[in-house]
Design brief:
The protein is mainly alpha-helical and 77 residues long. The protein has two helices and no strands. The chain has a domain of 51 residues. The longest helix has 32 residues. It starts with 11 loop residues before the first helix and ends in a 7-residue tail after the last helix.
Length: 77
């Protein structure tokens, strides 16, 4: 059998870059939920900050994601 090593169509650096961005998104939303719950408990507002903080963080993270993914690669300059 002739087994050739096929080169993947993706770069490992790109894979790690996107995995890191996804991890940042999950951690940021988790921190936003935690902080929102603590603020709601402290200020006696029911679900206001628990909903608002993760949404604001999600918007900000998607903005960052679009900016990061639209940058040209180093080899494309």
């Amino acid at each position: 059998m002739n087994r050739r090593k096929q080169s993947p169509t993706y770069n490992n650096k790109e894979l790690l870059r996107y995995a890191g961005l996804g991890t940042q998104l999950l951690v940021a939303i988790g921190i936003g939920l935690f902080a929102g719950m603590k603020l709601d408990k402290w200020l006696h507002t029911s679900p206001l900050f628990t909903v608002a903080l993760p949404l604001l963080i999600l918007i900000g993270t998607f903005y960052k994601l679009v900016r990061e993914t639209s940058k040209p690669k180093n080899d494309e300059k």
